[in-house]
Amino acid sequence: MTAISFEAVSKTFQTPRGPLQALDGVSLKVQEGEFFGLLGPNGAGKTTLISILAGLTRATSGVTQVQGCDVQTQAAQARRLLGVVPQELVFDPFFNVREALRFQSGYFGIRKNDAWIDELLDCLGLSDKANSNMRQLSGGMKRRVLVAQALVHKPPVIVLDEPTAGVDVELRQTLWQFIARLNREGHTVLLTTHYLEEAEALCGRLAMLKQGRVVALARTSELLKAASSNVLRFKLDAQLPPELAQRARVTGRIVQFPAHNAAEIEHYLAAVRQAGLVAEDVEIRKADLEDVFLQVMGEGAQTPSDAVAEVTP
Amino acid sequence: MNGWQALFYKEILRFWKVGFQTVAAPVMTAMLYLLIFGHVLEDRVKVYDQITYTAFLLPGLVMMSVLQNAFANSSSSLIQSKMMGNLVFLLLTPLNHWSWFFAYVGSSVVRGLAVGLGVFVVTGWFTPLSFVAPQWIVLFAIMGATMLGSMGVIAGLWAEKFDQMAAFQNFIIMPMTFLSGVFYSIHSLPPFWQTLSHFNPFFYMIDGFRYGFFGVSDVSPWLSLAVVGSCTVLISATALHLLRIGFKIRG
To answer: How far is CA B163 from the centre of its chain?
Structure first.
């Protein structure tokens, strides 16, 4: 069964500087029980897409459904099925953690929810903060409360909008263990993140958005396979010749070439030597999601290559 | 528990937790008005026969406090939630526009009446009062608080920053309450201002409310009921409509 479905969803914002198309015909489906990642640079439309799903923003056109419930015409049902962790670190300064969670339960019509609230607090390492005012919590703790608030009504579909932006390692671990557990128990998870290693580790399937369009949609493993399988990486004190620099990714002293086989690697190393340069700390590593991401984003507005065409699970 | 009850209770707790600011302070202000204006004008102004100026002033101050605090409650709660961003917690829930309306306006009525009662309790012993028709007192207090609570919802949805909210409060709500006949009978005004006052719905609220105490008023309480009733229905319907379409809160 389909947990989340976007069909030709477009969104145009009216701004003082004219209309801004944030989403341009986005179609994708997330199946029940999936751990799905939504990637893309800032301004690609990830948060807009999630806002449409959550009913915070109305799409200009297209249909969005949560487990078959339209987010506009069956808004109340759709919102009961959905638990959204917002990107912004927002909180209500009037209340403590337990009060906030009780009220959030109440809005969903759940009166006695303390057993589940206690479990959430425990799983998120918040038990000793239950009676602390929201204002007294650190950023990381507030983030945990946001997660708990999104889960008070035990939604089958969980949406996390950059939940680990600016949080420490410990919280990331706690959070991912908990979300992975919920996913194993059958919850569908939709995640947006800038940490590509997290997406690579957690998400079974990925969509990449660029300028409001889906430019890649496939299993994470397929995406990784489709990319150049290896990356040649070395450090250089001098400038690369222009014809080589075009094909490399240069970050300060670090130079990286995508390479499919040994011959290509030898070719690049020879070219560097011929240019009279000395490559230091040479290594060859497997391509990771970051390489795929940069490759896909670098492809411009071209159609997605066959390699990253849709693969239904 | 229905969702709206949770929100209603949260909204009550929100102002109650800062009760010094939201309840005690306006009671204090009203008491100062009564002491100062009562002292200065007691022997100089006579509005109705048999009624001292302090006694005349008191119901007006009670009603003014009810109205201002009902407005302040819903408007400040909404603008704060918008500025803090925590309105998203409500927007993500299945609560519909009726739930929002009952919770925000209901809690505003509670705060308005709590402050009104507070003013009445601390000032009531300054002067003997009569209660000719208490049903009018209750009716006008509730209708007035509902109307201002709804206006607060409208202002809270409309305002994008605290400055705009302050403008709404100081340039619309304050003049309308002060020029409604809290401190004077409109019969003492020049004809132009008297006519103008008749277009101010707040005048009918104060006048009808005062009728409940003394059994005398500038216009018939039935006329006041008709005006206040229709304004309340109209403004509540507007607030409900704006909540239904998610005016400025759902993009």
So the answer is: 21
Residue A40 belongs to some domain of the structure: yes
Chain B positions touching A95 (Cβ under 8 A) are 10, 13
User: How many distinct structural domains can be found in chain A?
Assistant: 2
Note whether A276 and A213 are same-domain residues. Answer: no
Q: Are the Cβ atoms of A104 and B88 closer than 8 angstroms?
A: no
Nearest-CB residue to B251 (from A57, A80, A150): A57
Q: What pLDDT does residue A262 have?
A: 86
- Cβ within 8 Å, pair B88-A82: no
Same domain, residue pair A183 and A199: yes
Residue A306 lies in a domain: no
Q: Which chain A residues in 56-95 lie under 8 Å from chain B, judged by CB atoms?
A: 56-58, 75-77, 79-80, 82, 84, 86, 88, 90-95
State how far the alpha carbon of B209 is from the alpha carbons of A136, B30, B56, B121, in Å: 45, 17, 11, 17
Structural domain for A274, as ranges: 229-286
From residue A250, alpha-carbon distances to A21, A175, A242, A257 in Å are: 32, 33, 12, 9
The reply to whether A244 touches chain B by the CB within 8 Å rule is: no
On whether both A54 and A173 belong to a single domain, the answer is yes
Give the tens place of pLDDT for each residue, A234-264: 998 888 888 888 888 888 889 888 888 888 8
The reply to whether A277 and A165 lie within a common domain is no
Indicate whether A9 and A59 sit together in one domain: yes
Q: Which stretches in chain B have pLDDT values below 70?
A: 1
- CB-nearest to A79 from B1, B88, B94 is B94
- Does residue A31 form part of some domain? yes
pLDDT band at A198 (very low <50, low <70, confident <90, very high): confident
Token pair in block for residue B236: 């509540």
Query: pTM for the complete prediction?
Result: 0.89
Token pair listed for A109: 């019509």
Tell me which residue in B2, B90, B251 faces A58 most closely, judged by beta carbons.
Answer: B251
Cβ density class A238-264: b for 16+ within 10 Å, e for less? eebeeebeeebbeeeeebbbbbeeeee
- The type of residue at B75 is S
Q: Residue A148: inside a domain, yes or no?
A: no
